[in-house]
Amino acid sequence: MTTQSDHPTQAAPVRGKFICLEGIEGVGKSTQVQALADHLSGCGIPVMTTREPGGTQISEAVRELLLSRDYPPMHEDTELLLVFAARAEHLQRRILPALEAGTWVISDRFTDATYAYQGGGRKIDVQRIAALENWVQGAFRPDLTLFLDASVATGLARAAKRGESDRFEQETLSFFERVRFIYHMRVQMNPGRYAVIDAEQSLEQVRADLIARVDALVNVGWKRGGA
Ligand code: Z5A
To answer: What is the Cα–Cα distance from 29 to 107, expressed in whole angstroms?
Structure first.
């Protein structure tokens, strides 16, 4: 006869950390997401990279709707709801399962982008965004958000080098100034959750600063599951 104590209980994996990169376009998020993932993998940490809007087949289809210039103008409420529809799918199907399995997740944008673009850019009431955030995410928030900050002129000039622009990149300078302003406001309101990185610097220096910020947290116990 076996009893429960005959079988050593298998320890649940330590939950992964959720790190987001944010900022206006062209500050280097997509480039640096991969650099950060490579660094953490090199430290023996299991890592998954993803992006928003997107990250699952359904969420990528919603991304196409959001970024395409092939459709008639979209109402701002539709845009907000689509962003959160894509996020619900991404969170439930991909982000949360990975974190529960002990994998760290690095995302190119998350809900701070909604506050910045739909709240700041489109001027949607912040209470509406907060209500959707609470509905879709409950208490779930990133462990760390790396805000890559550069002037609108720098960001748009870099993004423009890539060629054809998407629906958001058609917006005015004042739209992007409002977006950047909201990012700054959010950092000020909750400094413990953010690290601000000077993205005007060279790609190599931005990468070094990002890695230094994340390494500092790993060294204070993140790798062992500490807060
Ligand atoms: N959106 C929203 O409205 N609400 C939401 O909730 C969410 C998103 C989640 C996603 O588009 C759009 O969705 C986004 C907001 C909206 N708006 N737009 N546009 P996206 O993912 O295609 O675009 P993006 O997020 O803005 O990324 P981006 O334009 O690709 O920029 P990036 O990722 O920050 O930059 P990059 O691609 O890494 O670099 C751009 C170029 O600059 C490239 O040639 C690099 O080599 C160069 N670069 C980068 N850093 C440097 C430095 N430091 N020096 C010199 N050159 C550099």
So the answer is: 9
Which run of H or E residues covers position 32? helix 29-42
Report the pLDDT value the prediction gives residue 227, as an integer from 0 to 100.
53
The answer to whether residues 110 and 142 touch, using CB atoms and an 8 Å cutoff, is yes
In a domain, 3, yes or no: no
Rounded Cα distance, 70 and 103, in Å: 37
In a domain, 148, yes or no: yes
Ligand 1: centre distance to CA 108 (Å): 9
Check: CB of residue 27 under 8 Å from CB of residue 203: no
Residue 46 has pLDDT above 60, yes or no: yes
Residue nearest to atom 29 of ligand 1 (CA): 25
CATH classification at residue 190: 3.40.50.300
CA distance linking residue 142 with residue 114, whole number of Å: 14
Domain count for the chain, please give it.
Answer: 1
pLDDT over 90 at 3, yes or no: no
Domain of residue 74: give its range.
14-215
Q: Please check the confidence at residue 219 and state whether its pLDDT lies above 90.
A: no
Query: What does the block give as tokens for 120?
Result: 């700041």
Task: Give which of 35, 27, 29 is closest to 54, Cα–Cα.
Answer: 29
Q: Is the CB of 159 under 6 A from ligand 1?
A: yes
Residue 9 belongs to some domain of the structure: no
CB distance 145 to ligand 1 below 6 Å: no
| Full DSSP string of 63-120 | HHHHH-SSSSPPPHHHHHHHHHHHHHHHIIIIIHHHHHTT-EEEEE--HHHHIIIIII
